[in-house]
Amino acid sequence: DKALFPCYRWVQGDGIICLPEGTARTLRDDPQNLFKKYREEELEERRKVYRWGSWKEGLILPIAGSTQWDLPRNERFLEDKDLDFSLSLAKGLKDLAIKGTLDFASGVKRLEDFKKIFPRGKTALAERIHDSWKDDDLFGYQFLNGANPMLLRRSKSLPARLVLPPKMDNLKTQLEKELRAGSLFEADFSLLDGVKPNVIIFKQQYVAAPLVMLKLQPDGRLLPMVIQLQPPHHGCPPPLLFLPSDPPMAWLLAKIWVRSSDFQIHQLQSKIWVRSSDFQIHQLQSHLLRGHLIAESISVATMRSLPSLHPIYKLLIPHFRYTMEINILARRSLVSEWGIFDLVVSTGSGGHVDILQRATASLTYRSLCPPYDLADRGLLDVKSSLYGQDALRLWGIINRYVEGMVGLFYKSDDAVKGDTELQAWCKEVTETGLQGAQNRGFPVSLESRAQLCHFVTMCIFTCTGQHASAHLGQLDWYSWIPNGPCTMRKPPPTSKDVTEKDIVDSLPDLHQARMQKTFTKFLGRHQPVMVALGQHTEEYFSGSGPQAVLKQFRKDLAAMDKEIEVRNASLKLPYEYLRPSMVENSVTI
Ligand code: OYP
Ligand code: FE2
């Protein structure tokens, strides 16, 4: 009976596609225990097929298996996705091989030479970034609404690592003034401090751990005030500080002109170091860990502990599609030994695993929930944080949807407390999948309907909005290599005498830059095979109640989409990464 026995598979043995549908019920909706045995058997079977794996010590758990062929049949890409992925990868690699062989004849000598590897079909935003990437304006803007909006926070005090020499009293006064006004912000890359840099083809690469202090202007612009490239270390002279306007030496006008042109360049150099650090943190912490890996852990835990009759299973399942396979592919070729990271990224060859471990150790529940995360980072009332506004709004819409569904199946807090399957699921996510994340605020049990809704909202937001906000910016912000270089080939500058040649020699070489372009384009390109948030066609729930809730969800999403479109039309730089029509329903790329 189809209505009673939902089919949890979307593909069966011979590739027959079977629409899952049916009536959701919790254990308590079944007082005569008609389904109890069925549920237990199903979970037993699932635990055999969905086994926990382990990739590296100190990281959250993935699905078992080392290749996509080890995956349960239902987790594999269907033909259209498979074809699109392979063909576009093959095309990228072919171009790389052809153009790469011509590289020995030419090199990068001037910054503008990076135009050689600027994609032809670039986005309008990437074009704008190429035109004004040197501006302080755009440099600050990226912390608010760029590819990695997760690092910026409002300062509560001057950071301890910012050692100001006595002759910088003026800067200190300015910083304190902004601090008192509540308009001082910081982006601190300390997570990268002491990470072992990569060695690529016998050449040492370099990693820095910068700190940027910024001020928020009344017009909403965020402007850098000072950049420190490394934290102070015991027994070393305090690190050099780079300023947007060194005090002019009035008595030597001629010298000022000379220094001033020099100054522009070294300013640029220190900013390039920051952008390179941002590339590392963005790809590893914000994108890979907080998007891809967490989504996978939650998905494995769910498959192992919720039977397909369970309402929460039905609610979550559309948001796990293709995540296991894309992550296996990434572990096989992107962050593996001899993978893309080892080949061309300064944190490759182990540094990247170190960063993931450090980031895992400080991963909190609050930081995955925008209402808390934005409050903790002091961004709630920052009007120019478009990321913040959109994340909050999207969180609210998902939360309303979850509340709607939960309300249909749980009539009281006791119903939540008494659902043993649900409790086992929560424990499996936090304790096993996320490896003891209860220390960092993740729940091990669910005591109320509100707590359940919050947890499920976090799960859906992580698989959708969280990933989209980190994934979709790549093509815009990392296509112009100097704005987000994958590696640095010279140590951070220790003097202010820097030439354009020094900068070019620090940036990726042509081969590394080409690899960055190829993979940025491959991952960041528009996905022709995609399901947008809430638009899955499988009907996991039958019955008019759940269908009305889903309908309302889609209506809310459409309204948000429209409003962002209107807002963006009047902005100098549109912010699109959390537009519901752009956000994928699950982590698939
Ligand atoms: C899997 O054979 C994926 O080269 C991408 O990644 C690329 C391959 C395989 C390469 C296959 C091959 C899927 C999903 C992901 C993720 C998160 C981290 C993204 C990091 C992007 C790094 C860009 C590197 C630029 C140098
Ligand atoms: Fe991604």
Describe the structure.
Helix 6 (253-305) packs across helix 14 (420-433) and helix 12 packs antiparallel against helix 19 (544-569). The chain is mostly helical. It starts with 35 loop residues before the first helix and ends in a 20-residue tail after the last helix. Strands 1-2-5-6-7 form a five-stranded antiparallel β-sheet. Helix content is 48%, strand content 4%. It has helices spanning 36-49, 79-102, 124-132, 136-145, 169-181, 253-305, 311-316, 323-333, 340-344, 351-361, 370-376, 386-409, 413-417, 420-433, 449-471, 474-477, 500-506, 510-524, 544-569; strands spanning 153-154, 184-188, 199-200, 203-204, 211-216, 222-228, 241-242. It binds 3-{4-[(tridec-2-yn-1-yloxy)methyl]phenyl}propanoic acid and fe (ii) ion. Fe (ii) ion binds next to helix 6 and helix 15.
List the helices and strands and how they pair.
Layout: H1 36-49, H2 79-102, H3 124-132, H4 136-145, E1 153-154, H5 169-181, E2 184-188, E3 199-200, E4 203-204, E5 211-216, E6 222-228, E7 241-242, H6 253-305, H7 311-316, H8 323-333, H9 340-344, H10 351-361, H11 370-376, H12 386-409, H13 413-417, H14 420-433, H15 449-471, H16 474-477, H17 500-506, H18 510-524, H19 544-569
Antiparallel strand pairs: 1-2, 2-5, 3-4, 5-6, 6-7
Helix pairs in contact: 2-18, 6-8, 6-10, 6-14, 6-15, 12-15, 12-19
Bound molecules: 3-{4-[(tridec-2-yn-1-yloxy)methyl]phenyl}propanoic acid (OYP) and fe (ii) ion.
